[in-house]
Every structure is written in structure tokens, then in C-alpha cells.
TrEMBL record:
It comes from Aurantimonas manganoxydans (strain ATCC BAA-1229 / DSM 21871 / SI85-9A1). It is an enzyme of class 2 (transferase). Keywords: Amino-acid biosynthesis, Arginine biosynthesis, ATP-binding, Cytoplasm, Kinase, Nucleotide-binding, Transferase. The keyword Cytoplasm applies. This is Acetylglutamate kinase. The gene is argB. It catalyses: N-acetyl-L-glutamate + ATP = N-acetyl-L-glutamyl 5-phosphate + ADP. It holds the Pfam family AA_kinase. It comes from the Bacteria. Residues 31-277 form the Aspartate/glutamate/uridylate kinase domain. Catalyzes the ATP-dependent phosphorylation of N-acetyl-L-glutamate. Its EC number is 2.7.2.8. PANTHER family: N-ACETYLGLUTAMATE SYNTHASE, N-ACETYLGLUTAMATE SYNTHASE, MITOCHONDRIAL. CDD domains: AAK_NAGK-C (cd04250). The record marks K36, K258 as: Transition state stabilizer.
Length: 300
């Protein structure tokens, strides 16, 4: 080593980064941030650990983070191991009685506990829940229709035990917000009819964020955010602009229900929703604590 080389001054760098992040940390103090952690964003062990560290750091900075997770690809793998084929209609998994049991097992069981363990390993207290716990969320059978592009005839879809959240009771989440605990919630909920429903994780996160009037709702997916026609990231969108992009076909496929959930959440009182790439390490902190953010911010 040549001693005349300048020494890396990590102390200085860390102090500068902290000074930059401080005003953002203060702005989110005591505020609720709902983070939807999608199955595609989960990636490898290192990414999972970085995600858990971000959530732990938010809690340590006085923010109230709530994790709602998905696990679509993981459910698909379990179903195929059991010889059951996955079938989707309008982006939702057709869920019969046998499938909903496996969905609950994978989402509220293994994935939920994996995320809890990752956050706990960062020195925090995570608590794994689903809509059933504390009567938090009640669902009703989803009533979805699709229009046949050839005949233009509307068709009602029977998706089985796919639900839509219709009641959110914030009692348990308010209690946890005042505690050391970080809620990690799986998108499974009971119906008043006694059935168990499988709910799309984006929809579930939107309902939780709306009921809590969260400051931010972050959707961690596997693209940088909403992209324009030439594939460039759009940094900020109003609700009206987002609707135009859906109408003109710039937003398509799985991004349509995601952006529609964003719009609904904003209309229900969430201040801002961000779609960002969960495969980028520390995406949550980069979004919340830096000037330029990390994805697409959708606001009123
Ligand atoms: N304008 C757009 N910008 C970004 N992604 C888009 C756009 N239009 C369609 N998409 C698609 O939407 C996908 C994200 O939705 P989805 O796969 O449902 O996410 P997740 O499984 O993480 O919830 C992207 O991978 C991309 O293929
Ligand atoms: C009804 C419905 O489709 N439910 C989803 C729930 C999980 C989910 O949404 O996970 P991602 O966020 O990883 O896609 C499913 O069964 O796949």
C-alpha cells in the first residue's frame, strides 16, 4: 500500500450521508409508512437482509413501518410441487377450496415467518399477522368482470375464494404503532360468511394504507417504477396523468391494477404512493431518505 494515497474517510462520508438524510427522517417521524413487499421483489438472501435492515432502521428512526407482503411466485411453486396448476384471470389467482388452504399456508405461514425472522435478526421485534388476527380485515368474494375484446360482451368471473377487503379495523395496528413491534401482514382474510379469502397483496396493502391514512405507501416490484413509452422512468405522476397513461396503453398488464390501487389509496387519504424496484438494495431507504427518491411518486 502506498501511504501517500489518500485514505478513504468513511467517517466523513457517513456523517455527510446522515446529515442529508436527517431532514427526511424528521419529516417521517411518527408517520405511518406501509411497504408492500412483492414476491418478485424478494430475490436472494442478501436482498432480503437489506430489506429487513431498511425496515428496522425506519422503526429506529421513529417511523411507524408496516409490511404487507405477497408471495405469488412462491405459491405457484408450492402448488406445482403438489401437482396443482396455477390459473389466473384478470391478474388474480383462481382459488378453489384446496388452493386457498395452500395459499394461507405459504403466505401466513412460511413467507410471513421468514420476513419476521429477517427483521428480528436486525434487532427489532416483528410480529407476523394476517387479516384474521385481531379481526383486522374482513373480505367479501371478489366480483370481477372482463370484457371480451371480440364480442365486447361483459363476463362475470368466478374466481372462487378470491376476496376484496371490505372492512379494516385499525385497533390492533394502532396498538402496535405505539409499541416496539413491527407488523408484517399476509394478504389472507376471513369473510363474514366464515370462509377464508385470498386477496391480491397490492389491493390488501392499499386497503391497510387507506384505513391508516398513511403518509406513504411503497410498492416494491421488479421494475424501476412506471416507465414511459420509451422505457424511461417517470419520477412523478398526478392521479389524472396516471389515468391518461392507462387509457393510452403506456401502462399495461400487472401495472394497471397496481396503479389503480395507488389511485384508490390516494383517494382514501394516503398522501403519496411510490412504485419502485425492490431488487435494488436498500430501495426503501433510498426512496424515503434521499432528495431524488428511487421510483415513481404518485400524488393527488
Ligand atoms: N408503463 C409501465 N411501466 C412499468 N412496468 C409496466 C408498465 N406497463 C406494464 N408493466 C409491467 O408491469 C409489471 C409489474 O407488475 P406485476 O408483475 O404485477 O408486479 P408484482 O408481481 O411485483 O406485483 C412489470 O414487470 C412490467 O412488465
Ligand atoms: C388473488 C390473488 O391473486 N392473490 C395472490 C396473493 C399473493 C400476491 O399478491 O403476491 P405478489 O404481490 O407477489 O404478486 C396470489 O394468490 O398470488
Amino acid at each position: 500500500m502506498n501511504h501517500s494515497d489518500p485514505q478513504p474517510d468513511t467517517g466523513e462520508t457517513q456523517a455527510r450521508l446522515l446529515a442529508e438524510a436527517l431532514p427526511f427522517m424528521q419529516a417521517y417521524e411518527n408517520k405511518t409508512v406501509v411497504v408492500k413487499y412483492g414476491g418478485h421483489a424478494m430475490g436472494n438472501a442478501e436482498l432480503g437482509q437489506a430489506f429487513a435492515r431498511d425496515i428496522a432502521l425506519l422503526k429506529q428512526s421513529g417511523v411507524n413501518p408496516i409490511v404487507v407482503h405477497g408471495g405469488g411466485p412462491q405459491i405457484g411453486r408450492m402448488l406445482s410441487q403438489m401437482g396443482i396448476e396455477s390459473r389466473f384471470e384478470g391478474g388474480l389467482r383462481v382459488t378453489d377450496e384446496e388452493t386457498v388452504k395452500i395459499v394461507e399456508m405459504v403466505l401466513a405461514g412460511s413467507i410471513n415467518k421468514e420476513i419476521v425472522a429477517l427483521i428480528n435478526a436486525e434487532g427489532e421485534w416483528a410480529i407476523g399477522l394476517c387479516g384474521k388476527d385481531g379481526n383486522m380485515v374482513f373480505a367479501e368474494k371478489a366480483r370481477k368482470t372482463v370484457v371480451d375484446p371480440d364480442s365486447n360482451i361483459e363476463r362475470v368471473l368466478d374466481l372462487g375464494f378470491v376476496g376484496e377487503p371490505v372492512e379494516v379495523d385499525r385497533t390492533l395496528l394502532d396498538l402496535l404503532a405505539r409499541s416496539e413491534m413491527i407488523p408484517v401482514i399476509a394478504p389472507v382474510a376471513p369473510g363474514r360468511d366464515g370462509a377464508t379469502y385470498n386477496i391480491n397483496a397490492d389491493t390488501f396493502a392499499g386497503a391497510i394504507a387507506g384505513a391508516l391514512e398513511a403518509s406513504r405507501l411503497l410498492f416494491l416490484t421488479d421494475v424501476p417504477g412506471v416507465l414511459d413509452k420509451s422505457g424511461e422512468l417517470i419520477k412523478e405522476l398526478s392521479v389524472a396523468e396516471a389515468r391518461t397513461l392507462i387509457r393510452d396503453g403506456t401502462i399495461s398488464g400487472g401495472m394497471i391494477p397496481k396503479v389503480e390501487t395507488c389511485i384508490e389509496a390516494i383517494e382514501n387519504g394516503v398522501e403519496g404512493v411510490v412504485i419502485l424496484n425492490g431488487k435494488k438494495r436498500h430501495a426503501v431507504l433510498l426512496e424515503l431518505l434521499t432528495e431524488h427518491g428511487a421510483g415513481t411518486l404518485i400524488v393527488r
